[in-house]
Amino acid sequence: MDDKRTVKVSKYVSKHLRHQPERIGLVLDPHGWVEIEDLLRAAAAHGFAFSRAELDHVVAANDKQRFAVDGTRIRASQGHTVEVDLGLPEAEPPAYLYHGTVAAALDAIRAEGLRPMARHHVHLSPDRETATRVGARRGRPVVLSVDAGAMRAAGHVFRISANGVWLVDAVPPRFLRFQ
């Protein structure tokens, strides 16, 4: 499977497991899981066929580990805009986490902090390098430091997804450090 096909299948699966399962007739369970065979059938019925081997390659090769497989089921690890309960337990964050963004977003972030926007949580990275890659998807990246230790002490709840992305409801401006 070439890189172009891998990216195409990954984006298709991500779109339908995170944002629009109904578009191809999928119904996610309350925790975001769907039978792999149902996903393969639905994709083929909607004009984008791929094999189980291709799906397995996408899951294994994805550098961001966007998907989790449990037996015969698959789900997106985080980033949903559809209502799901990933069942992630509370976790003690490191003292600092990081968020990658672009300069155009800084005025709003200074005023309102980090908000989940269309997603259910704000996504935070465990290191600057990852946050830089995240921010670079939208342009020249700017990395913000999040005082996660102080947030936790103030009662904010953190969770960590299977692929190491930290999730929190919001980050008020007072917990952000602008470099």
Automatic annotation (TrEMBL):
GO MF terms held by the record: NAD+ poly-ADP-ribosyltransferase activity; tRNA 2'-phosphotransferase activity
A biological-process GO annotation: tRNA splicing, via endonucleolytic cleavage and ligation
SUPFAM superfamilies per record: ADP-ribosylation
Pfam families: PTS_2-RNA
Family: Belongs to the KptA/TPT1 family.
Protein task: Removes the 2'-phosphate from RNA via an intermediate in which the phosphate is ADP-ribosylated by NAD followed by a presumed transesterification to release the RNA and generate ADP-ribose 1''-2''-cyclic phosphate (APPR>P). May function as an ADP-ribosylase.
Keywords, ordered alphabetically: NAD, Transferase
PANTHER family: PUTATIVE PHOSPHOTRANSFERASE, TRNA 2'-PHOSPHOTRANSFERASE 1
Enzyme Commission number(s): 2.7.1.-
Source species: Streptomyces subrutilus
Main EC class the enzyme belongs to: transferase
Protein name, UniProt field: Probable RNA 2'-phosphotransferase
